[in-house]
Design brief:
four-stranded antiparallel beta sheet, single chain, 739 residues, mainly beta, five-stranded mixed beta sheet, 2 helices, Methylamine Dehydrogenase, Chain H
């Protein structure tokens, strides 16, 4: 041992002994007494204990029985792990860790699970509304805004105008709470006679809700209607009393009676290869001209056909309003002149045929003529620094007062312009629900996280609305804007991002584009509307499914990309793979015991998989994860296993408490972090086998009131990041025991 290593070892022991026996920690900590476990609201930045510069006593507890003849070692560290590793050129980035054996499964008492009840040290979340859509009620002089972040519908006076120095305008009514059934609701519609408010849920809720005009608070809807998964926007033909719903994927338009409820079937559906529907978003209906308009992002595939994914330019497809089945559009607006870039909500003026498009990443409102076709420029564009437009995704027309209203996803606001507005003009009025300089996080169901160790950034993708990948400082907290955001048409990313990976060796970001059966690889520092440097896509890739290709991982040492598929197998691509390439190897077959959920209409998510480069292992959840058959299990394979190779070890049984999550992580010391029952993250060891209880659990739901979606790790700072989609929150926990 070198002298420097001895000095480090002595310092570690000097600190470790009192730290262990008193459970002392060095980092800032949340004051437990100030945390109310039953809800998120009680945990905020004001509750974070400030650093004191000295250790802080958290608890005093009896040491676990280490077994007869065992000498004490710090939790998670064996004698061979105490030496600070020296880099070895032959092993590269992970060389030093290979001298550290995994913490042996026999060194803790069998069946013993310890709950780690330290509250999160930080939370990234947006405390303000994120407005996805807007509707105007000219009869009652009201503006309705759909909050996709705090799960609420907010109603304002139409003439409200937030002063520049005011923090916000308070709504006159708010529909919010568990009884409302509001989740990631997007499209809005207001009945022009009754004032009833219609809203559609864009993800797991799979329903449309209808509230009375007077609804306020935590109230039940008047009725709800079961709708397909991934609904996006609503439009109504009042003459025919029909309501139209655009569905993002598999793309379709579903038409119901306006007053339909419960499980009532659709009157008709527009869907099929000839329709030209490709990741359908905004929809508008002109009952006078009997036309229907649907904008598309161009992400296309048939989840039943291997390698069928493709990227097409965005478009607006025009149909007869009564179109049904696999009907081709009457005409299509498509091409570079259109300026379409993640087009969102749409509205039609039946008096003159002007079609208004909220152009999210174009930071604009585009106005086309309903007779337009081909590669045509909009007749008018509202855009510029004076407009107040920041990621506009909703648009609504007030024909009575000759105004157009636009909701901004990017700054908690809505703005009103004259109906004939064009160019870079200031709005007539603005309704803000946040300070004037607000930079919104644009969260839309945050179910995953990856850690960029080079830049010390958390990479957070959106699953549903505005499918960005946002990079946050490691120390980011509430209302902290991202340092950069990867977003827009040229990135090729799409919704249903449930996982992503950072490759520290090659400084690259790897994520799937599930709607197009593609794997996208970006520079590690990619920003804005930056295209991927490589795209793996095509029939030879053996990529199949949509929900069943939402997970991906990368071997952080070799750069190999691992993808679980709907065929109940794992395909592995070499570093640098690009285009329509065959996988380097495939792991699958009855002896592997790999069993994922079955694909239905594009759902049926696969579980996450992870590579352990330190111990040359691959860990694959199987069985009852994410809707799969059988009991949940963790299958542990050799890192390079292929074909019908059985696992080396299997963790399975009632004691394991295994449960589904969108992500998994493995520490360099060999601890596996995965979803556990009761809204928790459980921790097992790579040497575990059979019906083994987790060594520790982080009872996330018990501590915060939030559920568990993913998990990521930052070994250098001994932290665990846990995102939750049903709260748009990324929680960071200090967890030195596993590092």
């Amino acid at each position: 041992m070198t002298n420097s290593a001895k000095l480090v070892l002595g310092g570690l022991l000097a600190v470790a002994l009192p730290t262990f026996f008193l459970s002392r920690v060095e980092l800032p900590r949340v004051e437990p007494a100030k945390v109310t476990p039953s809800g998120l609201a009680a945990i905020s930045d004001t509750n974070l204990r400030q650093a004191t510069g000295s250790p802080q006593l958290v608890s005093i507890r009896e040491l676990p029985n280490m077994g007869e003849g065992c000498t004490w070692e710090p939790v998670g560290v064996t004698s061979s792990m105490m030496m600070i590793p020296e880099p070895r050129e032959d092993y590269g980035l992970f060389a030093g860790w290979r001298d550290r054996s995994a913490y042996a499964s026999s060194s803790l008492q069998d069946g013993q699970t310890s709950d780690v009840t330290r509250p999160p040290v930080r939370m990234i979340r947006d405390l303000d509304p994120i407005y996805s859509s807007v509707a105007v009620d000219p009869v009652h002089d009201e503006v309705i805004l759909q909050d996709n972040n705090l799960w609420a519908t907010r109603i304002f006076n139409r003439l409200d105008n937030t002063p520049p120095d005011a923090p916000r305008t308070e709504p006159k009514r708010v529909i919010q709470g568990v009884n409302t059934e509001i989740q990631f609701s997007g499209g809005l519609y207001v009945d022009p006679k009754s004032g009833d408010i219609y809203s559609v849920e864009a993800d797991t809720g799979n329903k449309m809700t209808v509230f009375s005009h007077e609804a306020n608070g935590n109230v039940k809807p008047l009725r709800h209607l079961k709708t397909p998964h991934r609904g996006y926007a609503l439009a109504v033909d009042e003459e025919q009393e029909e309501i139209f719903l655009s569905v993002e994927y598999p793309p379709k338009v579903v038409v119901y009676r306006k007053n339909a409820s419960d499980n009532e079937e659709a009157i008709r559906r527009l869907e099929g290869e000839h329709t030209g529907l490709e990741a359908a978003h905004g929809i508008a209906v002109d009952s006078k001209a009997k036309l229907m308009f649907v904008n598309n992002w161009g992400n296309a595939s048939n989840f039943k056909i291997q390698g069928s994914g493709r990227f097409n330019p965005p478009s607006i497809a025009i149909y007869a309003s009564n179109a049904t089945g696999d009907t081709a559009p009457l005409r299509v607006i498509q091409g570079s002149k259109t300026q379409l870039n993640w087009a969102a909500g749409m509205a039609i003026d039946p008096d003159n045929g002007d079609l208004y498009v909220a152009n999210d990443m174009g930071q604009s409102v585009l106005v086309f003529k309903e007779t337009d076709k081909g590669d045509v420029a909009p007749s008018r564009v509202i855009k510029g620094t004076k407009t107040g437009l920041i990621n506009p995704t909703g648009v609504s027309l007030d024909l009575k007062n000759k105004e157009v209203w636009v909701s901004n996803l990017g700054n908690s606001s809505a703005v009103a312009y004259p109906l004939n507005a064009t160019g870079n003009l200031a709005p007539l009025r603005i309704i803000r629900s946040a300070p004037r300089d607000k930079v919104g996080l644009k969260f839309g169901k945050t179910e995953a996280v990856a850690y960029d160790s080079k830049r010390q950034k958390l990479l957070v993708p959106n699953c549903v609305n505005h499918p960005q990948i946002a990079a946050f400082s490691r120390l980011a907290k509430e209302n902290t804007p991202p340092t950069r955001t990867l977003e827009g048409q040229k990135t090729l990313i799409s919704r249903t991002m449930h996982d992503l990976a950072y490759d520290p060796t090659h400084d690259e970001i790897v994520v799937t584009s599930p709607l197009t059966q593609a794997i996208l690889v970006f520079r590690g520092g990619a920003n804005g509307e930056e295209a991927p440097i490589r795209v793996i896509q095509g029939p030879h890739t053996q990529i199949l499914g949509v929900g069943a290709m939402d997970k991906v991982t990368v071997d952080p040492e070799t750069g190999e990309i691992y993808l679980p598929t709907a065929k109940h197998n794992i395909v592995v691509f070499p570093y640098g793979a690009n285009g329509d390439v065959a996988p380097k190897r495939v792991l699958g077959g009855p002896d592997t015991q790999i069993q994922f959920a079955e694909q239905t209409d594009g759902s049926g998510n696969v579980p996450p998989i992870r590579v352990d480069p330190v111990h040359n292992l691959l860990v694959v959840p199987s069985g009852g994860f994410r809707g799969g058959r059988g009991s949940p299990a963790l299958l542990i394979f050799d890192r390079n296993a292929s074909g019908n190779t059985p696992p080396m070890r299997v963790i399975r049984g009632s004691k394991t408490q295994l449960a589904g999550s969108q992500q998994m992580a493995i520490t360099p010391q060999g601890w596996i972090l995965c979803g556990a029952q009761g809204g928790a993250i459980g921790i097992w060891n790579i040497n575990d086998s059979g019906d083994v209880a987790p060594r520790w659990k982080i009872p996330v739901t018990k501590l915060t009131g939030l559920n568990v979606n993913g998990v990521g790790i930052d070994p250098a700072h001994q932290e665990v990041m846990i995102p939750t989609g049903n709260g748009n929150v990324i929680m960071t926990f200090y967890f030195p025991e596993i590092f």
